[in-house]
C-alpha cells in the first residue's frame, strides 16, 4: 500500500478495510460480523428513513509514543449511546458489546491507525438505528448497530490549536428546552445543517447555539461543547439541552489538577465580554480555540451588533489543558484516571 501522509488529513471519511455490525431482532442480538462491504441493505420502510430513530457516537484511538494503541474512554461513549437509545425507546448494545465491537473494528483496520508523529488518529463512528419496517409514528423494535472508522486529522483541517471564528445563532435553535439536545441523536444535527451552511458561507468556523427559550444564555457549538477561562476558573454551561461531552468531563477533571476552579453553570451571553479564553471542545475538535465571536440579529444578515475577541493564538491555560489531555491519549503523560483502553493487534 502507498504510504499515506496522515499529517495532511482533515476530519473526513477515508476508506478503511472493514466495518462491524450486529442486529437486534425481537430482542435478540445477532453475532457481530465484520464486513469489507460498506453498503447496507435495508427495507425502505425502516424507521430510520422516516422518523429518525438514530443515534451515534464518536471516539478516537491513538497510536501512542510507545507504539501502543489507546482508545479513549469508550465506556463513556457506550453509556451515552444507551441513554440516547433509551430516549428513542429502542434496543441498545450493552457496554461490553459496544466496547468489544469498537475494539474489533480497530483490530480489523489496524494499518489505518495513523502513526504517532502524524498528529492524526483513528476516529470511530458507532451508529445505532431502527430497521424494522413500519408506517405509523412508533419507536423501532429492531435495530442495527454498526461501528465504522476513518483515520482523521484536525476537525478544521488546519494545524492543531489554530483559532477560528464563531457566530451566535440567534434565529436558528439546535435543541428545544425540554427536547433531545442532551442526547446524541442524528436528528439534532439535521436541525443544525441549514444554519451551519449559512455560517460557513459567511466565513465562520463555528456556530454557537443559545437556549431556545430566551436566547440569553449559551448552550454549545453545533459540533462541540463551549468552555471559557476567566482568571483561574474553568467555566462551562450546565443545561439539560447540551450534549454531555466526554472531552469536557475529562477537561474538568484535568482543570482541577491544575488548580483551576471549575464552574458548571448557566452562562449568560453578556459574559462573553468577560472571558480571557474561549474554546470549543469535543472528540472531533479536541480543543479548538475561538478567536472571535460575532453577535448578529440573523445569520443571513450582514449587520454585526457586537464582537467578542480572544486573540489569534490559543490561550495559555487552554494550551496546558490540551497538552495534558492529548498527552494522556498518546501515552506522553501518565493516565492517572485509567481513561485509556489498550488495544492489541489481532
Ligand atoms: N456537543 C456536540 C453537539 C457534539 O457533537 C459533540 C461531539 O461529540 C460534543 C458536544 C462533544 O462530545 P464529546 O467530547 O463526547 O465528543
Ligand atoms: C465528535 O466529536 O465525535 C462528534 O460526533 C462531533 C461531530 C461534529 C463530528
Fold and architecture overview:
A hairpin with a 3-residue loop joins β15 and β16. The protein contains five helices and 18 strands. With 346 residues, the chain is an alpha+beta fold. The chain folds into two domains: 6-153, D-amino Acid Aminotransferase, Chain A, domain 1 (2-Layer Sandwich); 164-329, D-amino Acid Aminotransferase, subunit A, domain 2 (D-amino Acid Aminotransferase, Chain A, domain 2, Alpha-Beta Barrel). It starts with 18 loop residues before the first strand and ends with a strand. Residues 58, 220, 223-225, 243, 245-248, 282-283 line the site of pyridoxal-5'-phosphate.
The quaternary structure here is single chain
**Alpha-carbon distance between the termini?**
20 Å
Ligands in the model, by name, code or SMILES, are: pyridoxal-5'-phosphate, 2-OXO-4-methylpentanoic acid
> What CATH architecture label of the largest domain applies?
Alpha-Beta Barrel
CATH superfamily of the largest domain: D-amino Acid Aminotransferase, subunit A, domain 2
The value of Rg in angstroms is 20 Å
- State mean pLDDT (0 to 100 scale): 97
Number of separate structural domains: 2
Residue fraction in strands? 25-35%
**CATH fold annotation of the largest domain:** D-amino Acid Aminotransferase, Chain A, domain 2
Figure out the total of helices.
5
How are the elements arranged and paired?
Blueprint: E1 19-25, E2 28-29, E3 33-35, E4 54-56, E5 59-63, E6 69-72, H1 74-87, H2 95-108, E7 121-130, E8 143-152, E9 164-169, H3 186-201, E10 206-210, E11 218-221, E12 225-230, E13 233-237, H4 246-257, E14 261-265, E15 277-282, E16 286-295, E17 306-309, H5 316-329, E18 340-343
Parallel strand pairs: 9-10, 9-16, 13-14
Antiparallel strand pairs: 1-2, 1-3, 1-8, 4-7, 5-6, 5-7, 6-18, 7-8, 10-11, 12-13, 12-15, 15-16, 16-17
The protein binds pyridoxal-5'-phosphate (PLP) and 2-OXO-4-methylpentanoic acid (COI).
Amino acid at each position: 500500500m502507498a504510504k499515506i501522509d496522515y499529517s495532511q488529513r482533515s476530519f473526513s471519511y477515508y476508506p478503511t478495510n472493514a466495518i462491524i455490525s450486529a442486529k437486534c431482532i425481537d430482542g435478540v442480538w445477532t453475532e457481530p460480523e465484520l464486513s469489507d462491504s460498506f453498503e447496507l441493505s435495508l427495507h425502505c420502510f425502516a424507521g430510520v428513513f422516516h422518523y429518525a430513530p438514530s443515534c451515534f457516537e464518536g471516539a478516537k484511538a491513538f497510536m501512542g509514543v510507545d507504539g501502543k494503541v489507546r482508545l479513549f474512554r469508550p465506556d463513556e461513549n457506550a453509556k451515552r449511546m444507551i441513554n440516547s437509545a433509551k430516549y428513542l425507546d429502542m434496543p441498545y448494545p450493552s457496554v461490553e458489546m459496544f466496547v468489544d465491537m469498537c475494539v474489533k473494528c480497530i483490530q480489523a483496520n489496524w494499518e489505518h491507525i495513523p502513526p504517532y508523529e502524524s498528529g492524526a488518529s483513528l476516529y470511530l463512528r458507532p451508529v445505532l438505528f431502527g430497521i424494522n419496517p413500519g408506517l405509523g409514528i412508533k419507536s423501532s423494535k429492531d435495530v442495527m448497530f454498526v461501528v465504522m472508522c476513518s483515520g482523521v486529522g484536525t476537525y478544521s483541517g488546519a494545524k492543531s490549536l489554530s483559532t477560528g471564528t464563531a457566530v451566535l445563532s440567534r434565529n436558528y435553535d439546535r435543541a428545544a428546552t425540554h427536547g433531545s439536545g442532551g442526547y446524541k441523536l442524528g436528528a439534532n444535527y439535521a436541525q443544525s445543517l441549514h444554519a451551519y451552511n449559512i455560517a460557513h458561507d459567511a466565513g465562520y468556523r463555528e456556530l454557537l447555539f443559545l437556549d431556545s427559550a430566551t436566547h440569553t444564555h449559551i448552550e454549545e457549538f453545533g459540533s462541540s461543547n463551549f468552555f471559557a477561562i476567566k482568571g483561574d476558573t474553568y467555566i462551562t454551561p450546565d443545561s439539560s439541552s447540551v450534549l454531555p461531552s466526554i472531552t469536557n468531563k475529562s477537561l474538568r477533571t484535568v482543570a482541577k489538577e491544575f488548580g483551576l476552579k471549575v464552574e458548571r453553570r448557566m452562562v449568560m451571553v453578556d459574559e462573553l465580554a468577560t472571558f480571557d479564553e474561549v474554546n470549543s471542545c469535543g472528540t472531533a475538535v479536541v480543543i479548538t480555540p475561538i478567536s472571535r465571536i460575532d453577535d448578529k440579529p440573523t445569520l443571513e444578515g450582514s449587520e454585526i451588533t457586537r464582537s467578542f475577541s480572544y486573540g489569534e493564538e490559543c490561550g495559555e491555560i487552554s494550551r496546558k489543558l490540551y497538552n495534558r489531555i492529548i498527552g494522556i491519549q498518546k501515552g506522553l503523560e501518565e493516565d492517572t484516571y485509567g481513561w485509556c483502553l489498550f488495544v492489541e493487534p489481532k
